[in-house]
Specification:
This protein has 110 residues and is an alpha+beta fold. The chain is 25% helix and 13% strand. The strands form 2 sheets. Strands 1-2 form a two-stranded antiparallel sheet. The chain has a two-stranded antiparallel sheet with strand order 3-4.
Length: 110
């Protein structure tokens, strides 16, 4: 019911595409993107996302042991993927060479 447009006065404007009732939610389209783009650019994943895992943009492995750990966790030569499954954050922590407890907030990203 709305779109984002450029504005000379403020740089950006939210423009209604139709009359919006008081209290009605204002919604815009983020366009068509993969799950990775939604998570890393916009900070959320739409309910209708179709990917079964999100590629995690990790730095190159810091050691041969970390490289081997990544191969065991994600498959040889495959990118690290954050899956919608128990243990997914632990797998990413291991791929970074960190130990991760059950507390997922302990993950330290580069």
């Amino acid at each position: 019911n709305a779109r984002v447009a450029a504005s000379a006065a403020s740089g950006v404007a939210l423009v209604a595409l139709r009359r919006i009732a008081p209290g009605e939610e204002v919604r815009i389209s983020y366009g068509t993107h993969g799950a990775d783009q939604f998570v890393f650019a916009f900070g959320f994943l739409p309910e209708d996302a179709t990917d079964d895992g999100i590629v995690a943009p990790l730095p190159p492995p810091a050691s041969q042991a970390i490289a081997e750990s990544r191969d065991r966790l994600f498959g040889a030569g495959q990118p690290p993927r954050l899956r919608d499954a128990p243990g997914a954050f632990r797998d990413i922590a291991c791929a970074l060479g960190q130990s991760a407890e059950d507390d997922e907030t302990s993950l330290r990203l580069p």
